[in-house]
Write a structure and sequence with these properties.
about 450 residues; 6-stranded mixed sheet; 13 helices; alpha/beta
């Protein structure tokens, strides 16, 4: 599984800024006032040698009243989830009593800690780090998160010795399917129905599944590795310490899967936490299937209303097919597993450059990209740049000006043309170097040296 790294420190030392740099997002709100982050924020690292789940936390303070108490509780839960910890301090403030309290808390937590001293731009690293040895975590790493300085070295140091991850040896080549959703929506019952046996424990009590359970099986000549995850509840409602790793483990399962099956309860439908986790699956480019469970208990007159509500709330994943199933009775489960295979095959499809370029030309004929400052954006050819998700790289001129709406248009065109089922399509643009610029530069250098063809040197 992917390692989990928690960013911990007192308020206003730059934890959210570092989180945004490591994840290359703006998911964490950044401000120059302490206490902006109170809940835990999860994301995937996008820099460094080892993929990981990273957690941004609120400030850890030695108080137990007001808003500081829930903020401290959330940080302690992040520590319980984490495999590694980045302890962030402020270079310009020096070591404070709150830093010493954080250090004591981390020693009690028993996690491997990497100390980083932030906001060190323009300062002498040796002088900055000298004061922080007293915290007892060895050589501090001096960084400037707001400028991105030292952040890659920091995450590599924090994850040193971690396994980069991947499927077990006996599961190489298998279709990895993560079954996710809130507690008590029937995930384990669905897994058992797919397996045809009572492989995982089921109960009417929410939270029966405590950790991600990997189950290999074979069906119709295809190998699968099912991952039954613990239910993800809204974090404010998670009080049981045994549930503390639910979000991190679910993100790990998503990152290592080919296909994500979001399981919903037909009586409760999709909530904010479901949408957030689905957004993470979309960000990772995974095949997404929606399984609306307990459909057999829904009266016929309510079904159209539920379908309309789902279409509205799932509009950000319009390519994801919705299956109305009964895991207990097996209704619709056969179609679900067939779509798992179909989605996997789409995500892993090979597409030739001539075919992709032809589809691109047809898309341009139907709808040209808008002008960029009065100039035409020229898209010349396309080739495949990766799989899971299918990645299409388009070369041309002024591609940095292509609007996001046109990128989505092209992704939909490619998905339809190649019948890419249930999978996101990643479209990248690359601006080709202008050969005339190089030619003119060569001519200028030639004139300067007096070696241009057809010219005679005087004298």
């Amino acid at each position: 599984m992917l390692p989990v790294v928690a960013i911990v420190g007192r308020p206003n030392v730059g934890k959210s800024t570092l989180f945004n740099v490591l994840t290359r997002t703006r998911d964490a709100i950044v401000a120059d006032v302490p206490g902006v982050t109170r809940d835990r924020q999860y994301g995937y690292t996008r820099i460094g040698a080892v993929p990981a789940v990273v957690i941004d936390t609120g400030g850890l303070v030695d108080q137990s009243s007001g808003l500081d108490l829930p903020m401290r509780v959330q940080t302690e839960k992040a520590l319980a989830e984490a495999d590694r910890v980045i302890f962030l301090a402020d270079a310009r403030a020096g070591v404070t009593p709150q830093d010493r309290f954080v250090a004591q808390t981390l020693r009690r937590a028993g996690r491997q800690v990497t100390l980083a001293v932030n906001k060190a731009e323009g300062l002498d690293p040796d002088i900055v780090s000298a004061d922080f040895f007293q915290l007892g975590f060895g050589q501090p790493l001096v960084i400037a998160a707001s400028h991105g300085q030292g952040c890659r070295e920091l995450i590599d140091a924090a994850l040193a010795g971690c396994d980069p991850g991947g499927a077990p040896d006996d599961a190489r080549g298998a279709i990895r399917v993560a079954v996710i959703g809130r507690p008590n929506v029937g995930k384990s019952t669905l897994v058992n129905r797919l397996l045809g046996e009572e492989r995982v424990i089921t109960s009417e009590v929410a939270g029966t599944t405590r950790d991600a359970i990997l189950v290999p099986f074979e069906r119709d000549g295809r190998q699968f590795l099912l991952v039954d995850t613990a239910g993800v509840r809204r974090r404010a409602k998670v009080e049981d310490p045994v549930e503390r790793a639910s979000v991190a483990r679910t993100l790990q399962a998503i990152a290592e899967s080919h296909v994500v099956v979001m399981t919903l309860d037909a009586h409760d439908l999709i909530g904010e936490q479901d949408a957030s986790v689905l957004g993470q699956a979309l960000e990772r480019g995974r095949v997404i299937l929606i399984a609306v469970n307990k459909w057999d208990n829904i009266p016929m007159e309510q079904r159209d209303t539920i379908r309309a509500q789902l279409a509205l709330k799932l509009d950000f994943v319009p390519f994801a097919p919705v299956h109305f199933v009964s895991a207990r009775h097996g209704t619709g489960v056969g179609e679900l597993i067939r779509d798992v295979v179909r989605g996997f095959d789409s995500a892993m499809r090979e597409m030739s450059t001539p075919q992709l370029t032809k589809v691109l030309e047809q898309a341009l004929e139907a709808h040209q990209p808008p002008l960029a400052k009065g100039h035409r954006i020229k898209l010349r050819y396309a080739h495949q740049g990766g799989r899971n998700p299918p990645r299409i790289v388009i070369h041309g001129g002024r591609t940095d000006a292509v609007p996001e709406s046109y990128r989505r248009y092209l992704a939909n065109v490619f998905r339809e043309a190649f019948k890419l089922f249930a999978t996101p399509v990643a479209v990248e643009f690359r601006t080709d170097a202008n050969p005339y610029v190089r030619l003119k530069a060569g001519k200028r250098r030639g004139r300067a040296a007096g070696t241009m063809p057809g010219r005679r040197r005087r004298g």
